[in-house]
Amino acid sequence: MKLYNFWRSGTSHRTRIALNLKGLSVEYVAVHLGKEEHLKDEFKMVNPQQLVPALDTGSEVLLQSPAIIEWLEERFPTPALLPHDPQRRAQVRALAAIVGCDIHPVNNRRILEYLRKLFGANDEAINQWCGTWIGAGFDAYEALLNADSLRERFSHGDTPTVADCYLIPQIESARRFNVDLTKWPLIMNVEKACMELDAFRMAAPAAQPDAT
Predict the structure, then answer these.
(1) Do the bridges between strand 54-56 and strand 27-30 make them parallel or antiparallel, or are there none, so unpaired?
(2) Separation of alpha carbons 84 and 102, rounded Å
(3) In sequence order, which ranges of the chain are alpha helices (DSSP H)?
(4) pTM of the model
(5) CA distances from 42 to 24, 39, 78, 166, 171 (A)
(6) N or C end of the chain, less CB within 10 A?
(7) Which structural domain, as residue segments, surrounds residue 23?
C-alpha cells in the first residue's frame, strides 16, 4: 500500500497512527503542501479533491482520513480501534468527531491561507483564530473524559482507540499555534500515555522523511 501524505498534515498524522496501531507498513509518498504539490495535475489524478491523505491499497485509492481509518478497522479488525459495545463505540466516535468535524476543518491549511490572503490575517490573528476553536473543542473533550467513569489511561479504556488517533495530531497542531495546553490536564495525561507507544512516536510529524 502507498500513503500519499504530508509530514505536518493533521489528517495524514492521524492516518499514520492508525496504520501503525494496526501494525501495517506502507510506502510513504510525500506530497509537499507548502510547495503546492497537491495542486499539480499528477496528484489530481490520485485524488480529484487534491487533499491528503490518500491511501492506495493496490486495487483502489481511498480518500478522506475518516473513511480510510474506518476501512482499516473493517479490513484489519485486530487490534480493534473501536470498542465492541455499540454505546461505547458511539462515545469514541463522538470524541473523534470533536476533532475531525469541529476543530480541524476550520483550522486546516487552506482555511488559514484564505484568511491570510483575503482578510490579511497576520500570525497573531491566525493563532487567535485557531486557539478559539481548539479551546472550544478541547473544553468539550476534557469534560467528556472527566465524565467517563470507565476511562483509564487513554481517551477510552486502557488501549488506544480511534479517538486517540484524532486527538494526538490536534495536540501537535495546538502547540504550533501557541495554545496553552495546561488548561486540559486529562487530555495531557492521554497524550503522555499515547506517546509511550511506538505507534504514536513513529507517526509524529518530526519523525517523517519529509519533515523540514
Answers:
(1) unpaired
(2) 25
(3) 10-21, 41-44, 65-75, 86-97, 109-119, 123-147, 162-176, 185-194, 198-203
(4) 0.96
(5) 26, 8, 35, 28, 32
(6) C
(7) 2-79+201-207
SS3 49: coil
The reply to whether 212 falls in a domain is no
- The rounded radius of gyration (Å) of the Cα atoms in the chain is 17
CATH number at residue 188: 1.20.1050.10
Here the cell at position 160 is 488506544
Ramachandran class of 50: left when φ > 0, alpha when ψ lies in -120 to 50, beta otherwise: left
Q: Which residue, among 1, 5, 2, has the nearest Cα to 203 in the 3D structure?
A: 5
Q: What is the pLDDT of residues 34-93, one digit of tens each?
A: 999 999 999 999 999 999 999 999 999 999 999 999 999 999 999 999 999 999 999 999
